[in-house]
Amino acid sequence: MIGKIFLLNVLRNILNLSSFQRKLFLIFFDTSIIIISLFTTNFLIKGDEGLFNNINSLRAIFFLILIAIPIYLNTGQYKSLSRYVGSQSLYILALRNLLIVLIYLIFGIFYIPFSELIRFLILFWISLTSFGGFARFASRDLLLRFTTSPKINLKKVVIYGTGPASAQLFASLRLSEQHKVVCFLDDNPLVWERYFYNIKIISPDKLSKISTYVDQVFIVSPFETLEKRKEFLKLLEINKLPVLEIPSVSEIASRKNLMAYLKPVNIEDLLGRDTDKSLKILSSNVIENNVICVTGAGGSIGSELCRKIMLLEPKLLILLENNEASLYAINNELKVEKKVQIKSILGSIGNKFLLKKIFREFKVNIVFHAAAYKHVPIVQDNPLEGIRNNVLYTKTICEVAMEEEINNVILISTDKAVRPTNVMGASKRVAELIFQSFAEENILRKKLDTQFKGVIFSMVRFGNVLGSSGSVVPLFQKQISEGGPITLTDPNIVRYFMTIPEAAQLVIQSAGMSSGGELFLLDMGKPVKIQYLAEQIIRLNGLKLKSEKNPDGDIEIIVTGLRPGEKLYEELLINGKSEKTIHPRIFRSRESSFNKEKLWDKLDEIKFLDSQMNEDKILKIISELVPEWIDKRF
Known about the structure:
Rossmann fold; 3 domains; nine-stranded mixed sheet; disordered N terminus
């Protein structure tokens, strides 16, 4: 203990030296190493027969110091920080020492036999480099060990991966003074039970045995497949271990403090599925060389549709959006791809004259109608705006599509339209009825007018999309970033989820199978409890759930009670039956529709009442159109 305190005081005094004093100390340090190396070399050559029998010892010491110190001074030997010395410093030191012995060779060759001189200088170079390197690495480790404040509550972490990124993360953690690496994980059996920076590498399957001693897991290396990634995340879930993922090696190399750039693992990685790459021809047939218009192009679904459409090389992609900021963002993102022509239009889908101008001027072939108000509580509090946008403007889109004879119009619907318990769901169900009615109108008109080409009206209905603006995921992430708590309306709420890219791809492929009037249902996978989702998002952000069992956790979940219009379970079918299609994740259904003439009358009445802002009567009409929806006010 006394020796440790003494050494600590010595090191602190050295660290407190001025720049000039530090340089003098290091020169004395290197001078001592030169002398020790000379004596070692001579001993290796002559043993106990005497020191420097063939050369003058004082002259050798004098000349080598005279050569070495100026070289060290002029090549930056004393500019590096001792505590960050690495392997590269050893290579540079070896080159400096090689230069020293080469210069000495030039002078020594005149008075020492060549063979003896070569043997002497080779051994001296090895000794000088070895002693110098060892001394610097030892100094670095002593500085790291004795000049950092001892931490009692170090976070015990496990690193997944043993590549270059893992090495950089380990170095960052080592210097952070906040973490202790317990072990490394790797899927490669060839490296199991071996050591990485003197720390054992084990199989991920053995993580359960040490989970009680681990506070966090860092993912560094990429997984071979999404399935392996999900298996590993499931293992972490079982052991209730928080996890963080770091950026790629190139990102690490460009940043000073690696720990500051650790990023949470996305919930999509746990709940998402591999993209179904089958039947790509469905997408290509719909998009390639056609003029496509996406309404609500700046929204989460609309923008992803635009991204997917761009990859399929349409003739022209029209972005129609009434939110300037959203339109600006998606336009800037997509215009980088110069192969496809883009036209961004700021305007409302309720503007019939604007729609006619767009469809006629650009000769639009296909419309993806993604524009809608979809936030349940917002539409519940503002029913007139929600109905105007989701119902009346949908009818406007269909009317203009018929007039301009658009080839294909696809409505993006929602599972909340099934037996709705809120205004938003009811308004989307009416939007579906409108599409069904126009599909019937299309059939009648084709029979009466042989010149009419016909318009295919179809709908795609799916559930919650991870990360969309209407999803709970962004809300939970925001609440976590603010330190919590997460607010949950009911622990028993169950929802279906899929990723935005998968949903967009399936919507486009559905359009490729439509013939008119179909309702396409997307396979949403397994239902997920929202409470489970909240708990996993907390864990995937590298945090722990705060509860009665774990009062020292980071984020608490608070149950607030069901909101008006919210229901525990969502469904995809009302009363129809789903049928398989040629796509394994897309199903077809034909559900009951509303009498076309009566629907038009009701919509005209809603339009008139909307001009008078008569909310009660409009909602009453909506409840007549959607009898499954019961507004508690009536």
